[in-house]
């Protein structure tokens, strides 16, 4: 089953630019010689750049039946992932129902590591965690050949998108993550793990992979890593959660996402992200990207632009 030159692999959320797992995964699968059908929500320049990479681009909505028939007919392997959203469970079940109808040999589901600590009696206050837990339940009942990927927090979220302005403008890693340890992972590493699974899925069917980053350390340590990588002193400031979430709301971040990020921050403070596993190395044979290398790669986003006279 190693080669699927004759049928494409479906990658959903392929235009995303938060973790951008879909976009990175598309490039990685194409580089391995697979055909990729990339699902995008909108026809825009991101869709065009996926075409330029060599993907077949299909436009559609993950919650819509017709879209999913067009996307899934003729594929045998699926990566399912989409933005954190209140529609997550409906979309998962919609895609799974159509995948069952067409018959697929592998369905890789993007989940979250906190789900490992959830059960029929244990949940969190995050609406997204609950949707991921329910989605995993429904996929288990579906009888589909599921592979579950549960990464910890992405470097691209809290440590880039949500931290860059504070580092760039104030030399501060200003986050509401408390003083416990965390092991953030690069979403590029997550995409690499998924590409290994989809390249040859049979040994992975039924498995759950918990993916963590290079090390588990506290935020003061990570501020030192930023300082080393950027060549100037960056300090951690543990900002009050309510002020931080108010700011996100003012910036127009949807309530579902704000509520999810607030719970992630609270669970960080409780030490619930202090986890380390070997799953990424076992899958890819590669050590996770360190924060130092990540900051070097994104240095421009953490560096004030020079004022010209
Ligand atoms: N961020 C973290 O720290 C973290 C940690 C662990 C797990 N995860 C999981 O990772 C996943 C997100 O992955 P990511 O960051 O790579 O995603 P991403 O970059 O945010 O991309 C998600 C894509 O999904 C598309 N999408 C959303 N709703 C859709 C719909 N109804 N129909 C079609 N497309 C839709 C978006 O389209 P548009 O671009 O058009 O909006 C976007 O391109 C989630 O399952 C999340 O729970 C995240």
Question: What key phrases describe this protein's structure?
Answer:
309 residues, Rossmann fold, binds NADP nicotinamide-adenine-dinucleotide phosphate, 14 helices, UDP-galactose 4-epimerase, domain 1, 13% strand, alpha/beta, 7-stranded parallel sheet, globular, two-stranded parallel ribbon, 2 domains
- The overall pLDDT average reads 96
Count of spatially separate domains: 2
Low-pLDDT segments, ≥5 res? none
- From the spread of the alpha carbons, the general shape counts as globular
Biggest beta sheet attributes: 7 strands, parallel
The proportion of strand residues reads 5-15%
- The whole-angstrom Rg is 19 Å
What is the gist of this entry?
By secondary structure, the chain is an alpha/beta fold. It has 14 helices and nine strands.
Please characterize this protein's 3D structure.
- Helices cover 45% and strands 13% of the residues.
- It folds into 2 domains: 9-152 and 186-211, Rossmann fold (3-Layer(aba) Sandwich); 158-181 and 214-274 and 286-299, UDP-galactose 4-epimerase, domain 1 (Alpha-Beta Complex), CATH 3.90.25.10.
- Helix 1 packs across helix 8 (187-199).
- With 309 residues, it is an alpha/beta fold.
- A 7-stranded parallel β-sheet has the order 3-2-1-4-5-6-8, sandwiched between helices.
- The model has no long low-confidence stretch (mean pLDDT 96).
- The protein has helices at 21-31, 45-53, 65-72, 88-102, 127-142, 155-161, 164-170, 187-199, 219-230, 241-250, 255-269, 279-284, 291-297, 299-302, and strands spanning 9-11, 36-40, 56-59, 77-80, 106-110, 146-151, 172-175, 208-211, 235-238.
- The protein binds NADP nicotinamide-adenine-dinucleotide phosphate (NAP).
- Residues 13, 15-22, 41-42, 61-63, 81-85, 87, 91, 110, 112, 128, 151, 153-154, 157, 187 line the site of NADP nicotinamide-adenine-dinucleotide phosphate (NAP).
């Amino acid at each position: 089953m190693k080669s699927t030159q004759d049928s494409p692999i479906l990658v959903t959320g392929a235009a995303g630019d938060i973790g951008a797992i879909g976009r990175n995964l598309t490039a990685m699968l194409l580089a391995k010689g697979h055909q990729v059908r990339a699902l995008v929500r909108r026809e825009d320049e991101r869709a065009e750049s996926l075409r330029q990479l060599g993907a077949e681009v299909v436009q559609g909505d993950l919650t819509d039946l017709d879209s999913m028939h067009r996307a899934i007919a003729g594929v045998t392997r699926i990566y399912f992932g989409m933005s954190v959203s209140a529609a997550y469970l409906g979309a998962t079940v919609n895609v799974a129902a159509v995948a069952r109808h067409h018959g697929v040999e592998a369905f890789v589901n993007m989940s979250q590591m906190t789900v490992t600590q959830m059960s029929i009696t244990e949940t969190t206050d995050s609406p997204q965690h609950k949707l991921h837990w329910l989605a995993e339940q429904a996929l288990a009942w579906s009888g589909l050949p599921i592979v579950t990927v549960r990464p910890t927090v992405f470097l691209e979220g809290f440590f880039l998108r949500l931290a860059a302005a504070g580092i760039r403008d104030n030399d501060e890693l200003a986050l509401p993550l408390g003083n416990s340890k965390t092991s953030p992972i690069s979403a590029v590493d997550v995409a690499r793990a998924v590409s290994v699974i989809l390249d040859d899925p049979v040994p992975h069917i039924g498995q759950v992979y918990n993916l963590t980053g290079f090390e588990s350390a506290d935020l003061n340590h990570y501020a030192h890593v930023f300082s080393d990588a950027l060549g100037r002193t960056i300090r951690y400031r543990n900002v009050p959660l309510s002020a931080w979430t108010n700011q996100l709301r003012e910036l127009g971040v949807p309530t579902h996402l704000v509520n999810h990020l607030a719970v992630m921050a609270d669970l960080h403070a409780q030490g619930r992200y202090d986890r380390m596993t070997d799953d990424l190395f076992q899958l890819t044979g590669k050590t996770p990207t360190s924060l130092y290398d990540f900051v070097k790669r994104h240095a421009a986003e953490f560096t004030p632009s020079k004022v010209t006279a």
